[in-house]
Specification:
The chain has strands spanning about 10-15, 20-25, 30-35, 40-45, 50-55, 60-65, 75-80, 85-90, 100, 105-110, 115-120, 125-130, 140, 150-155, 160-165, 170-180, 180-185, 195-200, 205-210, 215-220, 225-230, 240-245, 250-255, 270-275, 300-310, 310-320, 325-335, 355-360. By secondary structure, it is mainly β. A four-stranded antiparallel beta sheet has the order 1-2-3-4, with no helix packed on it. A four-stranded antiparallel beta sheet has the order 5-6-7-8, with no helix packed on it. β26 (about 310-320) and β27 (about 325-335) form a beta hairpin. The relative contact order is 0.11.
């Protein structure tokens, strides 16, 4: 998430590859937090940034300025070392950088009409992918070296997505997912699944990457809404949970189930949704079709972490009992803008716009 309206204090927010940490940026600088404890690990007050990407929990950051001062050009990518507080390398491009993704082998830089693939260690350029105009810098990246894929929009008029194998440096497939242009893309961390949402925001589709076939289709709602983010449960096993945040101010959670090898799969389950200011009525049959008997048997609890535009971090627990009944509870919350090293929690905010999220599935 980047380039948010100036009325919001958060300019960008992102979780790292294994969701053990996350970064936020404001007009004053950026901060790095530990996801588990909420501890403030690092902060630098040097101006506004629109991109702050971590490499797992290492000292390496990929940062791009907002352009409010000459040294923070949106065309310059800085690889920054938080241990030495100094740049390791700077790379300048002809146009603004819209997105950056990385793992231990690859660095991906997304521009409006080109995407560059680099070797993360030598920074040698490996490939250039010409794309349709990608004004929002939409992309998805699976950091696993065994299934390392990059997803980019393939059309401006419909919801087609190009899936590119970043390790083999070749196009893997193109998927026609929606009739309307894409609004959000997500890859599971092991590269097994890709989730997409169009600008309509009513249907979320999940495809199996290896076969480019549709595996699941979820209805988020009846009325159009802007999907802010899609996120799979960060697991090396089958990604059985998918979360979606939207402009309606809600979070929707879906179960993918485990029957991936059957041609005629059961309908997947809508597990629940939350409006962060009111966790009651998480499942509303009047607005959502809920298939209680389709909840994956192995899922008993999911932890959903949210970063909001207004600077708040929230963590919810979704529990499912033996009767496959779902319930939500707010586990913790604090203000990222005022947090100090001891991670003191602040009082709840009154209004919340969802920014980005990640999921963790845990045993009962």
């Amino acid at each position: 998430m980047a380039n948010q309206p100036s009325s919001y204090p958060i300019l960008c927010a992102s979780f790292n590859q294994d969701n053990s940490g996350f970064a936020i940026s404001t007009k004053d600088g950026f901060k790095i937090f530990d996801s588990k404890t909420g501890r403030l690990c690092y902060e630098r007050a040097v101006g506004a940034f629109v991109i702050v990407e971590m490499l797992y929990s290492s000292s390496l950051l990929a940062i791009v300025g907002a352009g409010e001062q000459p040294s923070l050009s949106p065309r310059r990518l800085c690889l920054f070392n938080t241990t030495t507080n100094a740049p390791l390398r700077e790379m300048t491009f002809l146009t603004s950088i819209l997105a950056v993704r990385l793992n231990r082998k690859r660095l991906v830089v997304v521009l409006q009409e080109k995407t560059y693939i680099y070797d993360s260690n030598s920074l040698a350029i490996l490939d250039t992918v010409d794309t349709v105009p990608n004004l929002k810098g939409l992309c998805a990246f699976s950091p696993s070296l065994d299934g390392c894929f990059l997803a980019l929009p393939a059309s401006m008029t419909k919801g087609s997505v190009l899936v590119y194998n970043v390790m083999e440096l070749q196009s893997h497939c193109e998927i026609d997912a929606h009739r309307s242009p894409l609004a959000a893309i997500a890859l599971s961390c092991n590269g097994t699944y890709i989730a997409t949402a169009s600008e309509q925001g009513t249907i979320i589709r999940v495809h199996l990457v290896s076969e480019a076939t549709k595996s699941y289709s979820f209805r988020r709602g009846t009325y159009p809404s802007t999907i802010f983010s899609l996120s799979f449960a960060p697991s090396l096993q089958l990604p059985d949970i998918l979360a979606a945040t939207s402009s309606s101010g809600s979070v929707h959670i879906f179960s993918l189930g485990f029957e991936t090898n059957q041609r005629n799969k059961k309908s997947s389950s809508f597990l629940g949704s939350i409006l962060p200011d009111s966790v009651n009525d998480a499942l509303d049959p009047a607005h959502h079709h809920v298939l209680h008997n389709a909840v994956s048997a192995g899922v008993r609890r999911a932890v959903v972490s949210l970063i909001a535009y207004n600077g708040y971090f929230q963590e919810y627990k979704l529990s499912i009992n033996n009767q496959n009944e779902s319930s939500w509870s707010l586990e913790r919350e604090f203000n990222l803008l005022t947090v100090i090293s001891d991670s003191r929690e602040s009082s709840r905010c009154q209004s919340l716009q969802l920014c980005t999220s990640h999921l963790q599935t845990k045993p009962w």
